[in-house]
């Protein structure tokens, strides 16, 4: 196997983007995660001698974690001295997803709204090129029919130009571990390197069944608890999932129907395979107690020990 050399790869992709964009104007789809930040660094390098600088744009879909947009804004201000562009489009995403409960339809619906919005953004900023952080596992899983990743277009037979987009994906041949090697070459902050992956479709991937504002608030609160309690560097990803099922619980000596939260924590190098992380029992007890006490309507907490395969890391 050929040795991966981050600096050579960066030079290659920087030159490719410079040639591809050719003063057309660039928007970088920013999520706050390492993939999109690496893409922004490549776009910065590609436009170093140009008057046209890349525009970082983050969509507030209503499906993000607590303070996700605010923290990303602060990062861009501190790291680059520029303002992150943010579009408050949660209403259009939540309206489109209303009543949809199957995983594939959720991802397809999210994809349609996302790229229509990005096409609109390109026109608004007089740009033509969208740079996004699709990585290799997204492409492989889509091509194999395991699941449709919303950010995989051409390999799924979709022409980005249908949305008015010239698409450039500099890292789609890389795994997460190699993307982190690029991040180190760019001297990105260590905190960013430790950031866990978060699905592109946000909490739509962690709510089984229909998505509602009430259910989003529950999973958002539970996510803050799980992420604050599980900080082991061996963990590739940890998160809660809100099930569609209602089960019997007890409140004030009275039977009630409440929700189930599953906790999942895995170790993985490339996200194509994963094994359950062995959470200490006392930590599981603490997380369970906090979720039951702090998240309204939850009456049962379970732990998912399923490896990948046969399961996938995300539930949706």
Automatic annotation (TrEMBL):
Recorded superkingdom: Bacteria
GO CC annotation terms, alphabetical: cytosol
Signal peptide stretch: none
Pathway: Purine metabolism; GMP biosynthesis; GMP from XMP (L-Gln route): step 1/1
Binding site for ATP: 31-37
Keyword Lipid biosynthesis applies: no
Enzyme Commission code(s) on record: 6.3.5.2
Keywords: ATP-binding, Glutamine amidotransferase, GMP biosynthesis, Ligase, Nucleotide-binding, Purine biosynthesis
Molecular function per GO: ATP binding; GMP synthase activity
Stretches assigned to the GMPS ATP-PPase domain: 4-195
Entry function: Catalyzes the synthesis of GMP from XMP.
Protein name, entry field: GMP synthase (glutamine-hydrolyzing)
Phylogenetic placement of the source organism: Bacteria, Bacteria division TA06
């Amino acid at each position: 196997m050929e040795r991966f050399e981050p600096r050579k790869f960066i030079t290659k992709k920087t030159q490719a983007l410079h040639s591809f964009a050719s003063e057309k104007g660039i928007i970088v789809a920013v999520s706050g995660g390492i993939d999109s930040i690496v893409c922004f660094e490549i776009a910065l390098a590609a436009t170093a001698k140009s008057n046209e600088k890349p525009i970082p744009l983050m969509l507030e879909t209503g499906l993000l974690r607590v303070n996700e947009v605010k923290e990303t804004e602060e990062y861009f201000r501190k790291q680059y001295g520029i303002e992150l562009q943010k579009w408050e489009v949660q209403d259009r995403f939540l309206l489109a997803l209303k009543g949809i409960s199957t995983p594939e339809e959720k991802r397809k619906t999210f994809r349609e709204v996302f790229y229509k919005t990005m096409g609109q953004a390109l026109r608004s900023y007089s740009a033509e090129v969208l740079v996004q952080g699709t990585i290799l596992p997204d492409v492989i899983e889509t091509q194999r029919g395991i699941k449709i990743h919303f950010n995989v277009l051409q390999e799924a037979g979709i022409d980005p130009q249908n949305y008015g987009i010239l698409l450039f994906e500099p890292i789609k041949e890389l795994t997460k571990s190699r993307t982190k090697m690029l991040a180190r070459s760019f001297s990105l902050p260590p905190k960013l390197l430790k950031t866990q992956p978060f699905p592109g479709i946000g909490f739509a991937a962690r709510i089984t069944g229909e998505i509602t504002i009430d259910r989003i608030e529950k999973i958002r609160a539970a996510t803050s608890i799980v992420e604050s309690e599980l900080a082991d560097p061996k963990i590739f990803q940890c998160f809660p999932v809100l099930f569609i099922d209602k089960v019997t619980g007890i409140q004030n000596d009275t039977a009630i129907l409440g929700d189930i939260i599953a906790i999942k924590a895995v170790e993985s190098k490339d996200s194509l395979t994963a094994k359950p992380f062995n959470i200490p029992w006392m930590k599981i007890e603490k997380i369970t107690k906090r979720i039951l006490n702090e998240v309204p309507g939850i009456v049962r907490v379970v732990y998912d020990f399923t490896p990948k395969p046969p399961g996938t890391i995300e539930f949706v």
